[in-house]
């Protein structure tokens, strides 16, 4: 029997969710996906609930997706940007949040460069916290929308083979995806240059490969990650051109495979580096479906967390 409510008051990471939580979020997202495809795309589910979006790092897709989800649910929204706030004057994270909470905010969506920042807040403040990305740690709603998009294309993910390609070392998306897919029964392999694969990642019970072609031959889904140059303090490979030559996914390579692989990318895409445009924009790609599903998944998460407050 499916769970009727989440087992947690916060969405801090996939690690903290049960499989029942994930399935409940998916089921709720199914219902909200119908809503956002109607002529009138708004429901009053979060009326009188105030959500603060605290983004201490730059974001386009995630921020817009959360804001749109909140508006579709009729929530009141407070948007916060660190670049134009008192953080620039030395205010601490806790002081910033407490000042916002004193304005009677119910839920907080936070993106922060420090791993564990959302977990820290959850221990100190009385509000539901949604982690929108904390450093190189986790990005739970991205993993949920990725898995939801795979489920939409392939059905049940149990036994499916998913490969995550690229900069695994600096990616919060990779870690959340691994936790989520494993809980749903999928087989997972990561693939990239040895310098961009964390040393002990095999201990998570996944495969590790350095061979692009062999991994593509193996998998049902290729989730391609961006090279995060902004997080790299040393050179992990000689050049972007060489990376593209050995680990870039192009049309010619895909056409030479024995089976058709589903292509995914959380964005932003470095076209011509990790993936070419004729792959990213092909019928095998579900990249735009990921963006659409992101709104439905975030509506589901916010709705279910608000139900915990009731």
Summarize the entry for a quick read.
The chain is of the alpha/beta class and 310 residues long. The chain is 39% helix and 15% strand. The chain has 2 domains: 14-139 and 291-309, 3-Layer(aba) Sandwich (Rossmann fold), CATH 3.40.50.1370; 140-286, Aspartate/ornithine carbamoyltransferase (Rossmann fold), CATH 3.40.50.1370.
Please provide the count of β strands: 9
CATH level-two architecture of the largest domain: 3-Layer(aba) Sandwich
CATH homologous superfamily heading of the largest domain: Aspartate/ornithine carbamoyltransferase
> Structural class from helices and strands?
alpha/beta
* Spatial order of the strands forming the largest sheet: 7-6-5-8-9
Q: Under CATH, the topology of the largest domain is which?
A: Rossmann fold
Q: What is the level 1 CATH name of the largest domain?
A: Alpha Beta
The shape, in one word, is globular
Taken as a percent bin, the fraction of beta residues is 5-15%
Number of helices: 11
Q: Could you estimate the helical fraction of the residues in percent?
A: 25-40%
Oligomeric form of this entry? single chain
* Terminal Cα span: 23 Å
What is the CA-atom radius of gyration, in angstroms?
Answer: 19 Å
Order of helices and strands: HEHEHEHEHEHEEHEHHEHH
**Mean pLDDT metric:** 91
What's the number of structural domains? Answer: 2
List the uncertain runs: none
The biggest beta sheet reads: 5 strands, parallel
